[in-house]
Amino acid sequence: MSENIQLSDRAYVSHVEACLRANLNKGLWQLRDLVRNCQGAYPSLVLDILNRMGSELLRSEVEAWSRRVADPSLDSFGALDGIEGNPVLSSWYFTARACRRIERLWDWSTHRIAFLGTPRVYDWFSSSNLGASRVLLDLDALVTQKLKEAHGGDLIVNYDVKDELPHNLVRQFTCVVCDPPWYLDDYHLWIRRSRELAAGGVLCITVYPALVKPAAAGERQSILREIAQDSVSLTLLSEFLEYEIPSFELAQLAEAGVTDLDWWKVADLAIAQLTKSPPAIAPTRQPKKKDGTWHEVDIGSLRIFINAAIQERRDGPLLIPAHDTGILPSPSRREPALQHVNVMTSRGHGFICGDVTKLRLILETFSEVLAANRDPNLAIGPMNIDPESLKTLLSVLRLPGGS
Fold this sequence. Notes:
This protein is an alpha/beta fold. It folds into 3 domains: 9-67, Arc Repressor Mutant, subunit A (Orthogonal Bundle); 73-274, Rossmann fold, CATH 3.40.50.150; 294-396, no CATH class. 31% of the residues lie in helices and 19% in strands. The chain is built from 12 helices and 15 strands. The strands form 3 sheets. Strands 6-5-4-7-8-10-9 form a 7-stranded mixed beta sheet, with helices on both faces. Strand 7 (175-178), helix 7 and strand 8 form a beta-alpha-beta unit. Helix 1 (9-24) crosses helix 3 and helix 4 (96-103) packs across helix 5. The longest helix has 16 residues, at 9-24. It is globular, with a radius of gyration of 25 Å.
């Protein structure tokens, strides 16, 4: 017996919208798939409802849609949970939602994937056993160590993109997923390395928004032109990716009175089909950076980074805050307070130290004492450190006696 039910126009639209929302809650969809799964509703009506939903949605330029909904199952995952951020390397990691969107781009089963500076995506893919093979190249030694412990079967390389690639990795991949620091000089080098890794393959690379800095709009065009050069095709997915707020930026935002942002930073994803034989690439200008190597000392979960090459004084207090309370105004390399900083922490601090050898010895002693659950005063006693710097240091370490 056939049903003889007729809905009012308003009720009918409500039913279509409910069906559409149910589909969107399952993840990322192409418009054609949403239409197919809306039980015969006319495409223009589906599109009209999507447009009316507006701010609830993330939408790409190729009509891929997903809802801005909380998913408790994605709040925490993987081997990198609990590792504080690295301000020296500008480490921002994708949210789990962003990793899932990358996973759903296509069938990865036949791809040999190189993850260049994208440890969170690598962790997601390895945990789900996605791809025919996976290799991670990343400069953060603590991150690569944790991932080696979690995913022993994959090749994980502690690698600086300024160095030539290991010969055995050149042209070995069908896809590269990379996330360069958001500075134009870095992009030139990262694109070059990606082409060396996967000539003839697919490049998935982040592109920062047009208002992230004054020059961003022009830089974006330069980046996209460079990607398009020697590429068969180029697709740009707008606001496809989102980032977790790293620990150092959380502290800096809080210092400025900005809290409860959740994720706020988004990026486009450029997908390029690379040619098999790109022309020889001229040597690329190295990204500007401070001289010397940053040495890391960990005290509990706190990460402290010290650069011995940046040192201009030895008189006066051991530690001088680079800005007011010691918390930097922002994580950007363009921040003026960073000009003379040679000590940074994973919790947003920036200091000028006149004797980094002494500071490193003090911090390593603190680390050993606290790791053994011994009284911190055992480390303080023989320090021979000025009272103001000691007060600052105890505050950074969140120990009694800090300001």
